[in-house]
Structures are given as structure tokens and as C-alpha cells.
Amino acid sequence: MGTKVRAFVRVKPTAHFAQDVIKFGPDNKSIDIYIKKDAKKGVVNNKQTDWSFKLDGVLHNTSQEMTYETVAKKLVSEALTGYNGTIMCYGQTGAGKTYTMTGATAEYKHRGIIPRAVQQVFKAIACSVDSFITVRISYLEIYNETLCDLLSTTTSSGASDMQMAIVDCPQGVYVKGLSIHSVSDEEDALNLLFEGETNRVIAEHSLNKNSSRSHCIFTIYIEVRSRVRVLSDIRCINSKINLIDLAGSERLSKTGSEGRVLKEAAYINKSLSFLEQIIIALADPKREHIPFRQSKLTHVLKDSLGGKCNTVLVANICGEALHVEETLSSLRFATRMKWITTEPVVNVTYDSEETVKTLEKEISLLKQELAMHDSLVNRSLVTYGPLTDVQVAEIKSQIHEYLKGAIDEIDFFNTMLRGCCFFFFSQRQQEGEVETRLRSKYILIDKNDFATIAAAQKVMAGHALVPVPSYKEINLVHLFPSIRKEGTKSLFSGRDLAAHLPSKSQVVVPTKNLDVKEKARNEDTVKNDAQPSKPISEEISQRPSSPPSKAVAFEQFKEECGSEINRIFKENKSILLARRKRSSTVARRINIIKQEMEDIKKALEAERQERSQQGEYVDEKGRLIIDEKEFLLIMKLKDLKEEYRCSYAELQDLKAEIQYCQHLVDRCRNKLISEFEIWYSESFLIPTYVQNALKPSGNIRPGMIPINRVMCLEEDEQERFERMQEAMLPTGPDSVAFYKAKMKTDQKVMSAGHSSL
């Protein structure tokens, strides 16, 4: 039996709440709307003036915590047991959807459903003893019917190279190209949330100064595995929670939108209209087709609305009489949502690797049990492992004896021996069929029958003709080995190609050695700190009055402090160039081989045409024979094909090596540049009075303090956060992750703003 979608209404607090228009039921599960009749329309006026809506709850003057307890807590708990969940906020613009879903980041108590759901998930992980839970995060935006990844790390130019698309699969709907990030704690998840919020599209109009101009879907993926591995427990429970903040519907007469905001409003209203059509279609049991593909929003929500998922709707409304029409529209939508029935199920998958391991353990236990049983009945010779070479040879010997009639039956110790015997019988039958087919087409000569070989060579010398099959079947049988050996002497083998190329034994220097070198350099720094230092005045006097250009300083850095990093960078780059040169050589050789193969095929075709015009030679048994020239062409074509396959495989390996070497070179280059920036800042940009604090005998080593901290000694974000911690932690110890994530996001925004100046 299905589960009905749960629908709640949350009323935005306002000083002008229309108490005579909006009234709540005594159980807080119904809401009534009353409108006075318009006297201008006369006495006869049949227009409806009152409506009543029954929902799962009415949230009026409720806190964020109470809202979460009522709407989301149960759904998140069920998601941890394997049920998919969806929470969706719907309503007019400025009704408080984003506040309900995300909340206000200024204060911890005002956080919304998403931060609280993240906290609940990681609290459950902390309390879980017998389960291993993995959490991943994605953040999708649908802006003007375009899919955008709010957590994408690519640039705007790179994002256009890989367009995202909605894909239907047996497991459900997913967005191809959407990045999914693994998170280890609450702070990491909130970092992604706040980072995505900074990338959202917002605009201002008369009803809302920060109006969301897109639909956003924040998804939490949960994977639960049991820590206790038993033979029957190889399950993996997967679930996801979709937290959806829909853009608000707008009446253009009230918002006064124009230009870009007007275009955005048109897309928003159109997608919400399609969403309402889907709701009406799902509520109709007679409808066979549901048009989910009408818009990107409805397509993404296919599993949430019509699938196996727990779904909750929060309809946000304004309590002012001015917006009563929008309030009625939102309440109608919420009522229609309650008509939809979903069928939530636990999403269980089975790990194939664990299944194999479990079956192997089970086989081992069964073998032990069989061995114990055999020992009890004195059957000690029976083995249940793989057959040894001695046992296989014994089976073959018995089969030959049986076929000769020397023995009447074959002894089987177990079913494995019986299966092996059947296999050999089948193999022998196939060999006989192949031999019969070959003898019907070709002349087979035993290599040890020297008299027959000599006679065949005399026949060949007298007629200059060799009976062979067509060139397509030449690999089935070797005719006249001496002729083939002699004919292949002039063929180009291509195996000496590797002698002209750089050896694969060259060692690529991985960039992890950079960390080892850096560690050794740090140890040297500590040793130097222990030695007596030069007077500070002498060091300062050696410092130039004005910093040199970065180009000149970079050359100096490569010769001195960065010599080791520069050496590794050059070595990796030289190896990369060698691999590229080798790849180019192999590619040219492949093209040459292809051309040679084409020429040989043309020559073979010409030989066949000439033979058909002059008449074909056949022996006394009617079998076709060809001359030596055509035979050599066939053999050469075969060798070229083999060489082409080897060269192509080598080219693929070289491409993989080039990609890896390029990765190492890029890492070396970035490491060299970052080390130079630190060295340049510490050597030329730090003021003189700060140099006194960085002397070798002090506690501060160069590189520990970023240059922006050295140049600006005012209170920074970290200090403000620490001061705030002292004030806030005693009353809210769970707020550490929230405020840390907020601080990191603010720092990213500030640094991005400074870099754009």
C-alpha cells in the first residue's frame, strides 16, 4: 500500500497579518480563507468567497527548530535506514522558502532545514557502532531551463565543454555531469552548502530584495554498510535526500519586473505551471502517461513525485490580505500534492566483490565439511581442490586406454574428475572434426616424415607451384615450412623499432619526492636555527633597497633555494618530451604499415585477377594451387597485420604514459611557482621591523605566516571567530561546525573580491 505525500503550510510572520481573512483550525491542520463580496458587482454575485484546506499541519509563528522537528526529522531518520526522501518548499516570491530551507547564516538558531538535516545525519553517524556510513553532497541549480552545478570547480569556459543532462536509468533519474563531493564531517558539508549559496542567482524586485531566480536542489547521498561481516550480510543500503528550494511564482503586476528579471520570471512561472500539471496528472488514477519531460524541473523530480520516495511539501504563504490570491494558489497546490501516492522502499544493493569473497568462504567451509565426512567413512584419497598435473595425466591415460579397449570403465573419485573426463572427450571429438575438415581441404605433411617432404619439394621445384588454401585461411595450417622460412627472410619484421626509441626503463620522478625534499629542507632549517646567527643589522644591510623584478628573482630562486625542485621539473619534462617523440615515431610507423598493407592487398587482388584470366591450376584431386609470389604476399600481409597490432598496443601505452608524465610536470611546475612566491615574499616584501620577529632564534619560521597577515596586523576572520567561539560555545556547543564553515566561506568570498580588484 502506498504512502500519501505530506503537505504543510508555513505562514510568514508579518505585522499586517489579515486575521479576518486567514483563520486556522483548532487542531492546526486546517486553514480557512474568507473574502468579502465586492459590492460593486451588484446583489447577484455567485463568486466563491470562502475556502477550506485540510493539510498535515499549519506552521504559524513557529521557530526554525520546531519547523524542522515537524517537517523533516522523521524523513531524515528514515533516509538513514534506506528510504529516499524529498522536501520541497513552494510558494510565491518573498514568502520565506529560502529561509525555511537554508535559513539565515548570521545566527546559529536561525539555520534552516538543510543545515539541520546535515547535522542530524552526522550525529547518527557518530552514534552508529555496527554500520559504516558514507555521505556525499551535490548542489544543482536550474536557471532559465539550464542545468548548473553550484559546486563545480571548473571555470566558465571549461563548463561549456561538458554539458549536463538528465538521464533515465533503471535505478532512477540522475544528472550526468553533476559533481558529487564526499564529506567526512558536518563542517565539510556546510562548507559545500555555503559555497553553493554564494553561486546562486538572485535579483531584487519590489516584493523581495534577495529573490532567488532559480530552482535549487541540495542532495545528500547516504551509503550504509555493516561493519560486522557475516556470510549472509553483504548488503549495501543506498538512499538520498533531495532538499528543494523552488523559485517563487510572480505576478508581474506586483513585482514590476523588467529586462533580465522579467525573462527569469517567465521561465520560473512556466516551469511551475508544468510542475502543477504533473501534480494533477499524478493525482488522476486514470492517466496512463505523465509528461515529466515537459521541463528540466519536472524531469529531475520524477523519482521524488512519482517514484519510491518519502515526499514532504512545505507551502510558504504570506499572511497579508494583499497576497490572498497567491495564498489561495499555494494552498490549492498543497492540497493537490496530498492526492499523490508514493511507494517508498528500502534501496538495497549487493556488493559483487563481497559476494565473491563470501562464496569463496562458503566453498572453503563446505570442503572442510566434506573432508571431515570422508575421514569418518575412510575415504582419505578424495580431494576437492583443483586437479593436479598428475591427476590430469592419469585421466588422459585412462581415456586413451578406454578408447583402445584396454579397460572397460574409468574410475571417478569425485564429480570434478568426471567433469574433467567429459571435457577431454569433447576436446578429442573437436580435434577429430578439425583434422577431418583440414584433410578435406589441404595436404597435411608430417614434419618428421622427411621422405614425403623431399618428394613435395621436388614437385614444387618442377612445377614452381605450391598447393595452399586462400590467404584468408592460411593461418590454419603450415605448408612447406622451408618455403615459408625462405620467403619471410625478406620481410620487414619491425621488431627493431624499440631500438630507435627511448627506453621504457627510464625512471619518472614523482612529485611525492618534492615533499621528502621539503621535509629535509625543513630539518636543515631547524639545524640552522640551532647555530649562532649573524647580526640582524648585517642581514638587513645585505637586503636590496628595492625588490628585484620577479623574472630576475625567479632565475635566482632556481639557482639557489629552488634548485632541487627545478632539477626534478626538468627531468620530468625531458622524459615527457621523450615519450612524445617516441609516440610520434610509432604513429608514423603505423601509418607506413597501413599503407604497405593496402599495397599488398592491391597486389593480391591483381594476382587473383590475372590467375582468373589465365586459368586456375588445380591438382589431380581438383584442389586449387597458387604460385610462390602470391604465397609470399599472403605471408607478408599476415606479418604486417601482427606488427600493426603490436605497434597500436604500444601507441596506447605511450599515450597513457604521456598523460601521467604531463600530470607530474604540471604538479612540479605548480610546486615550483608556489615555493617561489613564498620565497619572494619572505625575502623582499616583509617590512624591516617584521624581520626582527622572523630571526632564526625566534619561534616564527619564514613561511609560517602568510604575507597578507604580515602586511596587515589588524584583527582577521580567524581572530574574530575565536573571540566569537568564547562567547557562543557555552550556550551552543554544536554550533562549531556551522560557524567554522561560515567563516571559511566568508574568507573565500573576500579573497575572491580582492583578486578581482
Total beta-strand segments: 22
CATH architecture designation of the largest domain:
3-Layer(aba) Sandwich
Shape: extended
At CATH level 3, the topology of the largest domain is Kinesin
Helix content: 40-55%
Strand portion: 15-25%
Q: Helix- and strand-based class?
A: alpha+beta
Number of domains: 2
CATH class of the largest domain: Alpha Beta
End-to-end C-alpha gap: 60 Å
CATH superfamily of the largest domain: Kinesin motor domain
Gyration radius, in Å: 40 Å
Question: What about the largest sheet?
Answer: 10 strands, mixed
**Poorly predicted ranges (pLDDT <50, ≥5 residues)?**
154-161, 462-514, 524-541, 709-715
Number of helices: 25
Mean pLDDT: 76
Main location: cytoplasm
Keywords: ATP-binding, Cell projection, Cilium, Coiled coil, Cytoplasm, Cytoskeleton, Flagellum, Microtubule, Motor protein, Nucleotide-binding, Phosphoprotein
Function: Essential for normal male fertility and for progressive motility of spermatozoa.
Subunit structure: Interacts with HYDIN.
